[in-house]
Amino acid sequence: MKYKALIIFIILILSTSFCFSEDRYDVGCFARQTVLADVNNDGFIDMLQPHAYEAFVSVLLNNGDGTFSEQVKYETYKDNNNITPADINNDGWIDMVVSYGNKLCVSVYLNKGDGSFTDQISYDASSSIVPAIVEDIDNDKWKDIVLCIANGDTAMLILMNNGDGTFAEPIEYTREVLCFQYNIIVGDVDNNGFVDFILTYSENFKVNRYIEIYKNEGDGTFGTPDVYNPVSTKISISLADVNNDGYEDLLGRHYNDAKVSVYLNKQDGTFDDPISYQTGTKPFPVTAADVNNDEWIDLLISNFESSDVSVLINKGDGTFNPQVLYQVDPKPSQVTVSDFNNDGWTDMAVSSRECFSIKILINDQNGSFQDVGNYGKSNYDWAPLAYDLDKDGLDDIVQCDLGGMSKEGHISIFKNLGDCKFDNSGARIRLDSSYSSFSSESQANLLFDFCSYPDKAIDVDLYFVMIDPEGNIYSGMDWEKVLRPVVRNLSLQPNVKIDEIPILNISVPKASPPIMIPGQYIFAMAMFKTGTSEMIMFLSKVMVYVK
Description:
Blueprint: E1 20-28, E2 35-37, E3 46-49, E4 56-60, E5 72-75, E6 81-86, E7 95-100, E8 105-109, E9 121-124, E10 133-135, E11 144-148, E12 151-159, E13 171-187, E14 196-203, E15 209-214, E16 226-231, E17 235-240, E18 249-254, E19 259-263, E20 275-278, E21 287-289, E22 298-303, E23 308-312, E24 324-327, E25 336-338, E26 347-351, E27 358-363, E28 369-375, E29 385-387, E30 396-401, E31 409-416, E32 428-432, E33 445-452, E34 458-467, H1 479-482, E35 483-492, E36 503-507, E37 521-530, E38 533-543
Antiparallel strand pairs: 1-31, 2-3, 3-4, 4-5, 6-7, 7-8, 8-9, 10-11, 11-12, 12-13, 13-14, 14-15, 15-16, 17-18, 18-19, 19-20, 21-22, 22-23, 23-24, 25-26, 26-27, 27-28, 29-30, 30-31, 32-33, 33-36, 34-35, 34-37, 37-38
């Protein structure tokens, strides 16, 4: 049977490119967020790829046309590695600094002057929950390394550059209590020309989160930090000058409270009490950009649970109008901004972790946005990156698929073709597994909905596939009995608006024989048919338990 070889895969999306053409590059399992930098000084952006569980980092050189050479691997530690590109030894070539989630060190890869790198040079340090920050801390024109420590009494470690691309013993900045840290950002909050650091953490792993600001003393050392009152929710921070006074203000998103807070800078590196604004539910970190071309920073926040994007327009004084919501596909990433159609207005790109697509919202040249379609077909756990890879004057999109233990991760390159008239010829379905109680004596309903509709009608057959607890198809069972038809020749009509999409309640057939057992899986499968072509897709799984 032609479907049998496909049953072991879970393919979660069918779609085609719209105004972007797609190229893919395999990079290994559990790929982390791709990093962009020109490492061979040819004027074209290359790709650097870290991994969660691979013992290497990858470098893919741009061929000079927006396509990329096969990855070159550099050996590293197999432990949540992250890459920060920077010129460490001041030779005019980008080097790589690799930090680790659990490994107690940091590694430096020096550029050989041609886009290839030396073997790693490791320095004893500590693990870091985020990529290393590489900045000139003491203004000696040499880049230093800062690591944000995940937990314990150490807030951050600083490795000062010796002035030759090597590093001194780390300097620790500690607290009196054990803490768990969440993120660190860099900026100059007091405008003294030296970089400062802002961290978020909780004490003794309690619920409350604090914001802590280490201000540079003007020589690369840091005094006692300023600590701001705790909030009882997950908070992530960023910086932007929202009131145009020349000082960076603090933006905090509150994941569990569905709000974003703005802390205005008092023009001395200290901050006013926050002013909070409502967002959708489970917001991601703030993206700051001027979307209505009034030269004031606006706020864009994607909301993971409510599946929308909040746009808060600046009133022209550092305060903001109530949010305007734009619906996107379920479980969106953080917002990426770019002028995709070169009309001088900021547009948005948001990837979906459930529909596994990227949605483009084009600015209507007034700060409001129009959904012009989706593209892509992969496991997008990271936010898309926007950059002009082929130097045609149009920003392209780089999107990383993390892969898994047995699935190769890859980087998708979507080249901007310039028309932004999206040819939406795909369809996506997801399975809502909130109802997952089954018994061998009864039927149960599962909820399907359609993330988006195509521009032309497509017929779909839906099936359920019975899988045992080890992931195997029932041994000795006829293939036709494994595929249990649920709906045949369901017609997806063209050009249906998102808020008009119907919901289907579909009854799961009884399992006989064999009866369902605890730990068994049910996979939902769809066959899409357009003309004479067909495509099989596995949509989701629901674990079975017997009442």
